[in-house]
Amino acid sequence: MGLFDYFRRPAPIGDAAALGDFIDKQSAFLAQKGIYEYARARAGHYSKVLFGEPGFQAAVEVSRWRAFPLALAMVTELVEGVLSPKTADRRRLLDALQTLTLSVFDRYPVPQSLGDEVWGEQRAELVRRLEMIGMHPPKRAIDIAFPWAQAYFDLMPIHEKLRGSDFPTIRSYLRITLCNIHDELIKRMDVSPLLRALGDEDA
Hints:
Blueprint: H1 16-43, H2 47-51, H3 54-83, H4 90-105, H5 116-132, H6 149-153, H7 167-188, H8 191-197
């Protein structure tokens, strides 16, 4: 990357491939950053020692792969909340986003830390979560995390007895990060081409 690359605006999101990449990148960030930052905060001065332990590294690997499908569901719901008011056919949009998000999930080989059976269960659970998006009106970005925050918190690679009353902190992290992802999407999306790429012929 050259010096002036830092000043370039990110590429617009105007087709399904670009939206898939956005969902992938933002979901990975949402899932992993919270896990790493929470573990560092809990370990304090011993964080370098903790992150050097093979057992902890293995636990983090399990946590982040289990968190990824959950993050995919949250980011997809965010995208749907932005785009649904701009289309006359919400059902078609939901179907297109579900197909796109599952294709993002399927980009990744089965994580060795989980295995085929668990990874298959994670995919099935992602399908269920994506289908739930259409069962209620679109949500604001700041509200999306509420149904999923406890599931995410339960994935933290820290013994539950040491977590204390940290759940509100993790929920706030998810809410703030989803708001930031929302703002990034608004800045970058090219609405009409994007909706047409997702099957809306009237966009």
